[in-house]
Amino acid sequence: MNDFDFLLGTWDVTNRRRTDFLDADSAWEEFPAVSRASRHFDGHASFDEIEFPTKGFAGLTLRLYDPVREQWSLYWASGRTGTLFPPVVGGFRGGTGVFEGEDSYEGKAVRVRFVWRDITADSARWEQYFSVAEDDRWLLNWTMDLSRTS
What we know:
Low-confidence stretches: none
Largest sheet: 10 strands, antiparallel, barrel
Structural class: mainly beta
Number of strands: 11
Helix content: under 10%
Number of helices: 0
Mean pLDDT: 95
Strand order of the largest sheet: 1-2-3-4-5-7-8-9-10-11
């Protein structure tokens, strides 16, 4: 089994995200999604498409494993903008995956952290954190709780 094999198949997803990713006092909104994931390159690649039906958009994630560095690069693409975001890079230790990278949000440089945790055969949790470039604090701004569909 490879790191992202747990994600294979179809999932119902409960999203919670802040209305402003950099404001700890901003409200949370909740909405559903459906994700479908597949395995490629003998387990060295993972791909999923996620649809947000109440939001009217979709996105996809391409995950590529570098066996020399022993790390994953995760690339997010938005169906709204047609753009590929900079990757977050990292790996799994003790059943938790942590991936970090540089990006921008509303013109401000941010560090991004994705965390995969609480992984079972039928559920998993993904979290997104941002940190403003000049700050060492991380703000949780999006969670996805995944439940496998039958």
